[in-house]
Amino acid sequence: ELVENSIDAGASTVSVTFKDGGLKLIQVPDDGHGIRCEDLPILCERHTTSKLSAYEDLQTIKSMGFRGEALASMTYVGHVTVTTITEGQLHGYRVSYRDGVMENDPKPCAAVKGTQVMVENLFYNMVARRKTLENSNDDYPKIVDFISRFAVHHINVNFSCRKHGANRADVHSGSTSSRLDAIRNVYGASVVRDLMEIQVSDENAVDEIFKMDGFISNANYVAKKTTMILFINDRLVDCTSLKRATEFVYSAILPQASKPFIYMSINLPPEHVDVNIHPTKKEVSLLNQERIIEKIKDAIEEKLMNCNNTRIFQTQA
Ligand code: ADP
Ligand code: MG
């Protein structure tokens, strides 16, 4: 949610830092447009959003946020401190929040550009939840995975992700104008070597308009696990049936049971996407889903058949 807020604020650099998988500290500084001082008192109240000005906006919403829930809910389970400066100001402001309200008046402070949101001691007041999270050490890799996916989609934003105090970033995407460069910076040159561009559109259909752009691995790509980076209308989502269908095409065409690398960006009318099938809203279902999946499957099949002819066989020792 914090990273999405930074993107909504037009940031071109987002550098996230984590301590103890985020339990001790989550720090998200960006160089976006910042938050005006007069908005700080209500910033963390529920339903505070700057992303809707008219009710009709709900139908055409382009930003990722609009419900005004993220910052508010964080202040109920952690200590949130916001440092921010807007353009043309000589200094910024810093203010901390608890349970939706400011703990003190905003204090003037030095700031460069944009906003830094810091969340400390997450779930300090929910002992059982904190315990469960303390015992799981797989949260940081999940964060790295998440930032990596964002970096592949938002190629003009320079993302980095590191553990607090570490010199080296675990993700460093750079900012680029080429999708392949972004994938190379995050997933490595060996992945990019085996990618093919793919495009599908169905703009002639009357009742359904969709476009897909992406990159998919070819027959030479070898991996044990599928990487599926799926953005629908610029939101990072999962769509299990699309993933299964894609894996099915690969297993049917490629003799070796290698799992694919897939990046897909699908755009379709917002009213065709149902995000309410899962509580986290990350798993979606689509109107005319079967048709869309069928079209995408056909396109992947065609790409794979063509590249299969020029496949490089490696002999086993
Ligand atoms: P939403 O994103 O749904 O509007 P949030 O609780 O995530 O709700 O954020 C509330 C509001 O705070 C946003 O609408 C935005 O105006 C402001 N905001 C939050 N984070 C940032 C940021 N990094 N830069 C600028 N404004 C921000
Ligand atoms: Mg938000």
UniProtKB/TrEMBL annotation:
<dbReference type="GO" id="GO:0032389">
    <property type="term" value="C:MutLalpha complex"/>
</dbReference>
<dbReference type="GO" id="GO:0140664">
    <property type="term" value="F:ATP-dependent DNA damage sensor activity"/>
</dbReference>
<keyword id="KW-0227">DNA damage</keyword>
<dbReference type="GO" id="GO:0006298">
    <property type="term" value="P:mismatch repair"/>
</dbReference>
<protein>
    <recommendedName>
        <fullName>DNA mismatch repair protein S5 domain-containing protein</fullName>
    </recommendedName>
</protein>
<dbReference type="GO" id="GO:0016887">
    <property type="term" value="F:ATP hydrolysis activity"/>
</dbReference>
<dbReference type="GO" id="GO:0005524">
    <property type="term" value="F:ATP binding"/>
</dbReference>
<keyword id="KW-0539">Nucleus</keyword>
<comment type="similarity">
    <text>Belongs to the DNA mismatch repair MutL/HexB family.</text>
</comment>
<dbReference type="GO" id="GO:0030983">
    <property type="term" value="F:mismatched DNA binding"/>
</dbReference>
<keyword id="KW-0234">DNA repair</keyword>
<feature type="domain" description="DNA mismatch repair protein S5">
    <location>
        <begin position="183"/>
        <end position="305"/>
    </location>
</feature>
